Amino acid sequence: MSSYEGRPIFIFGNQRSGTRMVASILNQHKNIVITDEAHSFSNLHALIRQADRMPRNDGWKYSRVEIAQNFMIETSAQYIRDSSTTARRFGNKTPGLEFMLDQVKSIFPDAIFIYCLRHPVKVVRSLKNMPWNKRTTQENWDRFKASVEIFEKMKPRAMLVQVDQVSNVDEQRKLVRDLLDFVGEDLDENMPYYSGDEWTPANTIKKPLDSLSDTEMSSITNDRYYKKFCKKYGYDQ
Predict the structure, then answer these.
(1) pLDDT (tens digit, 9 = 90+) per residue, 149-192?
(2) Which CATH architecture is the domain 9-232 placed in?
(3) For the residues 27-44, what does the mean pLDDT come to?
């Protein structure tokens, strides 16, 4: 049986949407470890499914969870591996993992999910400035819409976090409280994101960003989906 207690926590959403900030908040809690991005999760899932086809005893359903947890821990940074030895709750942060939701649930059937959402223009603009991004603006916009559609169809619904609607210390503290309430952990008022007197913006880019071209901008804002989305999620104000 896994050495971790409670339901596993998964944080996902479009890239550049605040998953890092949410993971950082939860990693400040002594009981929680949120592992680094699991870009090889599809390979991990395939190997576990291959092992599923072998004759197994009843304990295998627990072993497969522990194997997946250990893999994600051991492929994380050293400070994550260190904190995993004392934490009692396991989690992972991987933008885009929602596209593998069925595979995640097949290994972690009792997982709970946190979905990070940010204004689409900010997301697509930020992605345009990432050296590792290989997609066009239109491809990133289409992927954004597909990601939101997965979130909206999830049952039970994931917790929604809109980090670009957090703009001061009080709202940041409320976010910390809401996250811990959702995952079922008590508030630790010594957590830096809660105890600090300064708001910590989610943006991790330190350089000026290139803007979207007029053509790129219109491909998003002239899409019928855009206005419906903005109204639904409060971005039309």
Answers:
(1) 999 999 989 999 999 999 999 999 999 999 999 999 999 999 99
(2) 3-Layer(aba) Sandwich (3.40)
(3) 95
Tokens of 138: 């239109």
In a 3-state reduction of DSSP, which class is residue 120? helix
How many residues can be counted in the chain? 237
Element (H, E) at 156: none
Q: Which structure tokens are listed for 51?
A: 């092992």
User: What are the φ/ψ torsions at residue 117 (nearest 5 degrees)?
Assistant: -130, 140
The span from the CA of 211 to the CA of 88, in Å, is 43
**Residues 6 or more apart whose Cβ sits within 8 Å of residue 210:** 125, 128, 129
| CA dist., res. 39 & res. 74, Å (int) | 13
User: Which of 164, 151, 161, 165 has the alpha carbon at shortest distance from 183?
Assistant: 161
Q: Cis omega (within 30 of 0) on the bond before 156?
A: yes
Query: Taking the CA of residue 176 as centre, how many other CA atoms within 13 Å lie in the half-sphere pointing to its CB?
Result: 24
| d(C-alpha 14, C-alpha 220), whole Å | 16
| Cα–Cα dist 123/65, whole Å | 33
Contact of 103 with 1, CB cutoff 8 Å? no
Structure tokens at 102: 């069925």
Task: Quote the pLDDT of residue 198.
Answer: 85
